[in-house]
Amino acid sequence: MELEQAKNQFINLWGNFGSQWGINRSMAQVHAILLTSPTPLSTEDIMEKLQISRGNTNMNVRELINWNLVYKETVLGERREFFRAEKDMWEVAKRIVRERKRREIEPLMQHLNDLKTVESDNLAEKQDFENTIQSIDRLVNKLDSISNNLMKADEHAFFGMIVNLFK
Amino acid sequence: MELEQAKNQFINLWGNFGSQWGINRSMAQVHAILLTSPTPLSTEDIMEKLQISRGNTNMNVRELINWNLVYKETVLGERREFFRAEKDMWEVAKRIVRERKRREIEPLMQHLNDLKTVESDNLAEKQDFENTIQSIDRLVNKLDSISNNLMKADEHAFFGMIVNLFK
DNA sequence: ACAAGTTTTCAATATCTTTTGAAAGTATAG
DNA sequence: CTATACTTTCAAAAGATATTGAAAACTTGT
Which residues of B touch A162 (CB under 8 A)? Predict the structure, then answer.
């Protein structure tokens, strides 16, 4: 396949994949274009290649910077900003995990805690509900603790350990 | 907190959580109501408690059955169908992983493969693109292989191994 | 075979999310 | 200080997604 065509396919692929996981299509596509650009890109470059508006580009680049997946870059003698994606995919994965944990898992854990014990005259039903919540809570906490450790480990160590485990 | 109130909060919580991860709100809410019901529920029950239409209820219950998270149940002397959720959350987690893998990760891996080698006169840029794709491909494959093993292991074994690893 | 109860489908509608683009805001050079 | 280059904001519009509800299809008992 030809390089330009392959890049376009990748932008598409990454966009679809993102939207299946609750990340908006444009944001994923901006990420894709930066991942596959050998040089940092300006807002104009991104607008042009993805055919999206200035506002849209600005907002999604900014969000990617919040996620720590994209850096601002200054180019000598250029007034406008350029953007460059983190290309170490292990880093990318860790940062996505970190961010989703912070934004979604932690609030979830907080709320589950509030539901752990309830009041009711119907003892059996009370117990049943509490069991379900406990069971969700245990799972979420375990996944959380794996993700904490994952973020400390380096790629080789992490996958090495996991793969060895199952041999 | 009072039981009924807690159930409502949970339905809400699960619905929000689902929609952040690309699962539609109603589907997650139907799942929540079944998870927290001590007895199987009919379509009518679900419609009434969630205040949603028959069509919506039917479609989402069916989707949950496709995901293997909900079972059809027959009640003696009743003509209509009842539904019951799988309550072992380790099982639930495994089934969600299995399904998302099948629907999303496998197609992704397929497409990445097609992008692994491209043609271009610009050797440096070709190399750069191929490196990025390779790096994504390696990560996805490793995550895939962990998830395969996870689905074979039982909960205790899995978490036991992971937790010990990081001690 | 019919009638009553139940489930499924799907076009129309409503809702929610994303995108646009022009205006306001900010920074920099001269 | 002022003009110009550039970035950010946000209300309105477009687009995507979810929901409704009534009709069609199916199922079961008599």
Answer: 142, 146, 149, 162, 165
Q: Is the dihedral of CA B121, B125, B129, B132 positive or negative?
A: positive
> A145 contacts in B (CB within 8 Å)?
163
Answer yes or no: are the C-beta atoms of B129 and A129 closer than 8 Å.
no
Amino acid identity at A114: D
The residues close to strand D, meaning Cβ under 7 A, are A 19, 42-43, 54-55, 58-59, 61-62, 78-81; B 24-26, 51-56, 59-60, 79
- Closest CB to A120: pick one of B2, B125, B136: B2
Say how far apart CA B51 and CA B64 lie, in whole Å: 18
Q: How many residues can be counted in chain B? A: 167
Nearest to A162 by CA among B105, B97, B134, B147: B147
Cα(first)–Cα(last) distance of chain A, in Å? 37
3-class state of residue B119 by DSSP: strand
Strand order in the sheet with B70-73: B41-42, B82-85, B70-73
Q: Which residue of A has its CA nearest to B37?
A: A129
Q: The tokens 């380790």 sit on which residue?
A: B90
User: What is d(CA A104, CA A78) in angstroms, rounded to the nearest whole number?
Assistant: 38
HSE on the CB side for A58, CA within 13 Å? 4
Closest alpha carbon to B10 in A142, A106, A103, A129: A129
3-class secondary structure, B76: coil
Residue closest to A146 by CA, chosen among A112, A110, A97: A97
Chain A residue with minimum CA distance to B36? A129
Q: Which residues pair with B73 in a beta bridge?
A: B82
What are the pLDDT tens digits along chain A (167 aa)? 999 999 999 999 999 999 999 999 999 999 999 999 999 999 999 999 999 999 999 999 999 999 999 999 999 889 999 999 999 999 999 999 999 999 999 999 999 999 999 999 999 999 999 999 999 999 999 999 989 988 888 888 888 877 777 66
CA dist., res. B92 & res. B146, Å (int):
17
